[in-house]
Amino acid sequence: MSRKPVIAGNWKMYKTQAEVIGTIEELRALVEGYAEVEVVVCPTFTSLPAAANALRGSSIGLGAQNVHWEEEGAFTGEISTEMLLDVGCQYAIIGHSERRQHFSESDEMVSRKLQKLIQTPLTPILCVGETLEEREAERVEEVVLGQLERALAGLTVESVFRIIIAYEPVWAIGTGRTATPEVAEEVHSMIRGWLSETYSEDLAGGIRILYGGSVKPGNVAELMAQPDIDGALVGGASLDSQSFAQLVKY
Q: Fewest CB atoms within 10 A around its CB: which of 21, 95, 209, 213?
């Protein structure tokens, strides 16, 4: 089954509205009409309306970096799915290692966010990945598949089909260390095998699994050549429109 590659830029806590608009305008000029790849940008919450406006009429998708599991309520500093849809989002990242690490997000919280997203038109980008300690203790399978299992608990096959999974080894995020294409492929293949056993071969063959962790123009083609890697969730290298365009046109 052919899976359309996804290159998503996670802009983290960078860029003012003006900078977001500037980057999007440059990016549009460089990748517009390039239909082989699904392109997504995920700016900060404050820049989402400006980004949606700058993307009007474009094939580039708009995503948020996080979301809350409740529709509304007394949750200071949080954003709901309805608010994201209201400003024009089509995707939402959940379970990013920085959220898990710095904001103590548990697998249960990630699961609740996923359950909520599945009830909306938003496409979830679900992040999983192990730390260096966990990798060195040979716990990759236990950690990564455990995170997946707890996140997907209770979801139907149809619901899981709508998710994009992003494997992000924590030790390779923002460190300049990249998992070799072979190491990344090993985990992607393991995830796909688990999906096949847990759900169905059809689902495992159709779901997109992205790699995240110091992806750059210099290593993207090698990573994308692996049979089970369907794209990238990119941090630093997506902040510059030229390098982002190189990733899209790997």
A: 21
Rounded average pLDDT over 101-125: 97
Question: What domain range is 185 assigned to?
Answer: 6-248
Q: Which of 96, 105, 130, 188 is catalytic?
A: 96
- What's the sign of the alpha-carbon dihedral 197, 227, 216, 10? negative
Measured CA to CA in angstroms, residue 168 lies from 24, 80, 211 at distances of 25, 25, 6
Is 96 among the residues known to form the active site? yes
Q: Is residue 31 assigned to a domain? A: yes
pTM of the model: 0.96
In a domain, 1, yes or no: no
Q: How many helices (H) and strands (E) does the chain have?
A: 12, 8
Residue 150's CATH number: 3.20.20.70
Which pLDDT band, with edges at 50, 70 and 90, does 80 fall under?
very high
Domain count, the chain: 1
Active site residue 168: yes
